[in-house]
Amino acid sequence: MRTVTRRRGLTPTLVALLLVAAGCGADRERAPAGPTAAGTDRPATGAASPSVRPSARAGAGAAPVTCPEPAATPASSSRLDPTAGTYLGRPGGAATGVDVTPTCEIVVGGRFTGVPGGPTTTLGKGAGAVLLLDGTGRRLLRTVRLAGAVADLEVRRPGGEVAVATDRGVLLLDPGATRIRWQRGGAVDRVAVGAAGTVAAVAGTTVTVYDRGGATLTRLRLAGRTVRDVAVDDRTGLVFVAGFRQTGGGRCDPVQIAWLHAYDRSGKLRWRGYDPPADRLGDLCADSRADRVAMGRDGRLYLAGETAGGNSLFTRSAADVTRPAPNVATDDFSRASNTGNAHHTYLARFDPATGRQLAGQVVISRIDSKGNRGNTITPSAITADESGRIYAGGVSAYQIAGRSRVTLGGRRLAPYAGGDAWVLVLSADLRRRLSWVVFTDGGAGVVEGVAVSGGVAAAAARVDEPGFWRGPGPSHGTGGGYLAAWPGLR
Fold this sequence. Notes:
Region (Disordered): 28-87
Oligomer: single chain
CATH architecture: 7 Propeller
Keywords: Signal
Shape: globular
Signal peptide: 1-26
């Protein structure tokens, strides 16, 4: 068994980590979160008050918007001074997505009840909500109630409209989040919006692409494949779809094979990454999945995948399995060695127009007490800032690099306790970890979304067991969802 438990029973997050550590099965997904109890952890002290600069124009909130100043790179990758760390709503909910508006507001989606403070706009009756906060994450500007629970969201730049995926359908909110511009029914898992307003939504194995007004442009039916995520680049006119397929052949039977496809808005396949026939894998028999895909603020395409062991497809070029991948390794936590079949994360950057892979890196946790053996760490979110620095997040078993030294707001966190909600920030050349921290402070959970723009960075998490770091400013709940915010980098 590759995970390490300490002092407490199995949490939903730890159960999921134990399952994936055993190896992939056909179409297995992470265990859902169950209801949790409210935490009793104390707010941290020592976090510096953020400096702010006036925004060029007012945003979704009623009050004038201010944008935090970008910060210098932290002196240590294990130290971070967030401007906020707060629960969102009551236990039993979850934060499932986060983004930053062009006017520096933080937008969080999920299932929330009992969120205190700020006005409420009701666009539907249900537990689903979109929360708008200022750029520090301390001030709740508005709660927008929706009919369906929010699974994902993305903000259009530069327009500011919010594309939202819910279990009742996909919808587009206006920049003020005061009304629904259009909506289409049916449960939706993931959503993306391009700069010109093209929206793509995932529902099971089908991806539907809409124009800015909500008219259907094309519908991609990808039967026989598991679809995990979607992204849109209106500059190239392409829609990117990522996932994996369960197959077999050659030496690898059965095997899961990651794939990344680019389609134009008429539904024609323009390029593909990974996705070789099983009989061309050779001995690359470790299961692989493409879990998340996103357009970065730098105009590049980013992928977060996972693999069950080091001998995987991600060691090879996305375009040609016979060539090595342009991977960057700096130490044992970015190298797939001594892994067994523990699931670990893989991050990659692509040219969206051609599909050429530009860079990649393994991310793995390790058990220091067992010869630094690789342990499970999986991704749930990826993005990049304007300079190409990569931000990723997810859940990790014991333990990430420097875990015992992780310090938020001047206070060292409690030891690992059964599933760490992590965020990693890499330099644009992938040669330096600028930040690698967790927000679990004796609790357990999963980072479900990361966002960065200008002077604002944020992570949204699902709380499986209370005990998350709490920072300065008022609390916006007692459990369920969680938000951390910190300055973006200069």
